[in-house]
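Progress against Task 2.4 (sequence-to-structure conversion) is shown through the following example record, which the project officer requested during the mid-term review.
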Amino acid sequence: MPSRFKKRHLDALAKPSTSFQSPLEVFAHIDLDAFYDPIVCRQWNSIIAVNYKAREYGISRHDNIEDAKKKCSTLHAPHVATFKKGSKYWDYYESPDVANYKVSLDPFRRFSRKIFHILKKYTTDLEKGSIDEVYIDLGPYLYSKTKGLFPQIHKDEIELDANLPEVPNPLPEPLVWRGVLFNDQENCTSSANDWDDVFLILASMYVAEMREQVFTELGFTCSAGLARNKTLAKLGSGANKPNKQTVIRNRDVNEFLLGFEITDLWGLGGKYGKKILQAFNSAEFGTMKLLQSVSLADMQYKLGNGEGLMLYNIVHGLHASEIRLRIDITSMQSVKQFTAKSLSTEDDCKLWLKVFAADLAGRVFQLDEEADIPRRPKRVVLSHGNTKNSGPKQVQEQTSILFSKTISMEKFTDELYIAGCDLLLQLLSNPAVTFFPCTMLSLGLGNFELIGAGKSIESFFTSPKKPATQGMPSNSNSFSQSNLMFGISENPSSNEKLEKSPQQRLSPSPVQSNDSVTTISPNFKQDDDLSNLSDNDDNPLFVTNTTFCHKCKKSIESFVFNEHLDWHVAEELQEKENKRSQTILSQAKRPYTSQLGKKTEPPSSTPSKKRKKDSKDQSIFKFFK
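Structure tokens generated for the chain above:
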């Protein structure tokens, strides 16, 4: 009997941009386990992590250290690594206090990098979920692996809409399920009803090998979940902890989800989860069973087409999303709140700036180890908070900065510290700022750029190219060129968003209705009778974060906030250009290390007509049109 899966479902697995949309896809979620002695991780007097052994004593993160030790006399409670005030190096201190120490996550990041280094030997199609978890798209691996094991399904003469050949029975001898197979009533070890089972078997063997290698090299155990999408894989990794992997077959997805509440799913807790419960008059428990019984039409009637389709796909385990590489960091910040004892002197602030500079330098150079090309920031921002005065509660000062590709971490730290001190002096000399008592201080980096790509500084001011309609953003589930092989046309609404000019994208836009979203996912046709995954991520399920701009007093979408700040910098540069005899672009050809935003005296003479013409021709605003 032929398979119910088609050749195009198989071909979609070849690359991550389309694999996540295939019903043959397999995602893995690998999560590091805690150790086996009763251990809690301490930050000041609070508990930030509890391992499984300690949980057996009833210890939770809601306990303080004293209460936890009463429950378990043999409890180990090491404090996280900390920077001491004025030091450029973190260490493990016995009894650090919150007023004079700052937490460092550097040890966690180091081991995290070691784990990722091992996993990258197996595949580069992975997404860092957090410091100790990772999502892996196994589609490309499975596509390549089955070319050797099952060449009959890869034959070119099989048409895209033709069904795949029948699964061989029995399977080749090495193929066996690895891990805990959810709802395994038959206690099967190598049986497969269709090709989706075969791909899950191969994936379970591959992930088991990865986990074994992590243990061999580092001595760490980890758990894993394997399923057709990221949401299910993450739920699966926690189902049989520690040191096990859970495999969820496609036919068992609905039953597996019945073991959870809708608010257990990422993005559906909090206010939005309550909104869903109210919309369907649901109690707090049994929500998944109730929502699985609601038709798509009813969900769209109550929530709108976009939200209704999204929720329907989620509760049936059909929501597809691709892996997202997260090494393209645009900003980072080192911050400390001084609630116990506020800062009162300039020297106090400088001691903490030394800590912040070291913390940021370590993170920047750790980022280099995760990427092929190093990244360096072009902007330094000092933020100050004073909650004890009636004026502005938070004030920022920023400057541009250039770092060479070959700069050492020690030199990077020193230059960043000097830049921070310069910004501190600017804030202290500003009569409009009541600096002390200082209750919050932070040093931030922004506008990260790939170093070594051969860019000149003039390129900083060039207009961003409009994306072509076939090249959709990697962090979107919208239609792409690859969807043409599925016989699906492009989504006009998605293209309209991409055609916005930079000025339009920088300005807050009104909330738009998504009631027009009625598309079926491009990975299936309606006659496939397999699923109807949503291809639309543009809906209220994923709330857009905004950042308030103190310069123009507007809330800007966070993902374009750095570009928005660049626009302000460009505006300041244009103002300076009108007061200088030389143009900004001629200055840009020289090494640019001056601080932006300083006031300059106006020119003593009126510019000539020719100068006005030159100014108009060379205005940097033309690069933003």
